[in-house]
Design brief:
With 397 residues, this protein is α/β, with parallel strands linked by helices. It folds into two domains: 96-224, Ribonuclease H-like superfamily/Ribonuclease H (Nucleotidyltransferase, domain 5, 2-Layer Sandwich), CATH 3.30.420.10; 239-390, no CATH class. Helix content is 25%, strand content 27%. It has a seven-stranded mixed β-sheet with strand order 3-4-7-6-5-8-9. The chain has a five-stranded mixed β-sheet with strand order 11-13-17-18-12.
Length: 397
Amino acid sequence: MTTATAIVAGHVLALRRSLLLSKPSCASFSARAIPPAAHCCRTVAAATPSRACRCRSVSSESSTAADIADEEGPKSDAEEYEEGEEEEDGSEEVDPLAGVCCRAPEAEAEGIREWELDFCSRPILDARGKKVWELVVCDATLSLQFTRFFPNTSINSVTLRDALASVASSLGVPLPDRARFFRSQMQTIITRACNELGVKAVPSRRCVSLLLWLEERYETVYSRHPGFQTGTKPLLTLDNPFPTSLPENLFGDKWAFVQLPFSAVREEVESLERRYAFGAGLDLDLLGFELDENTLIPGVAVESSRAKPLAAWMNGLELCSMEVDTGRANLILSAGVSTRYVYAGYQKSAATTQEAEAWEAAKKACGGLHFLAIQENLNSDGCVGFWLLLDLPPPPV
């Protein structure tokens, strides 16, 4: 059992349960206050993935990974490790013209069952003066990393299908069960290519490792490429549509702003597979979060008399973030790649606006980290579902 705090009627109550929740005063959705979690917070180093596999580069913008594999033959983990060690020692700089093709020696091939991928243009012009496209593939732990440049004349589902197949053959891993992608504009091409390979394409912004890796590649690769175009805006920007009404099956009975110590959040994430049938965590070590164990992480708890069915429906949405629209006194839930729901509302007043702003400030102080919990009762000790969420800026490409 862990201890957190909830704010009720302006008084701090120390309650002893796994998730400490304030009990709303009525059966409809109603907000409760939460103070800023400013104390004990430190800067979150979440801009760049802190764990990377030892990679070997594959050169040229026109060749495919399959061609390279045929010419060189697969390299052993020891060979890749040695080459990676040379790069880490600084003896070899990143070649902006080269691709990446690597798998961490300690990563079991059969254990990498989900990929994250992006297939989009880059702020780079080729010899014809046309934008270069790139395929970037990784897994959630960055144990698998693959990149390949393509001319804009070969952008179709067949090219992508063959390239994804070459990732598996080049790195000696099976095709994944699922492949997440975050650009809605590429859904048709990606879905078609994945379907032909027997891979489920999942539109989702929970591609956290991929998004952070793209940010890193912008600084270390794209901006150093001889064809880089300064100030070029992304061709396919992320959608941010106006939020729509929440489907009836996703409504809960009550909700409350809550908070949980960072140490308890870690425990909840680590116990997801043991305790809950529904939910999703994040690799906090990979993301580089450096928070005091007592730092309070803000969240939203939802009570429902049909908590298990509600959690099951929520589990299929690829939840990514929750935010407060103080102007309209609403909670906005983002899911998938382009879905936004008005999740709940509260009666607007100076007090509730201040409370909502404090919740957003607490989230910002924690580097955008927050959570959603679903319970059978707000006073119960456990959760039926727990999702760790993270605010991330759109990638620079």
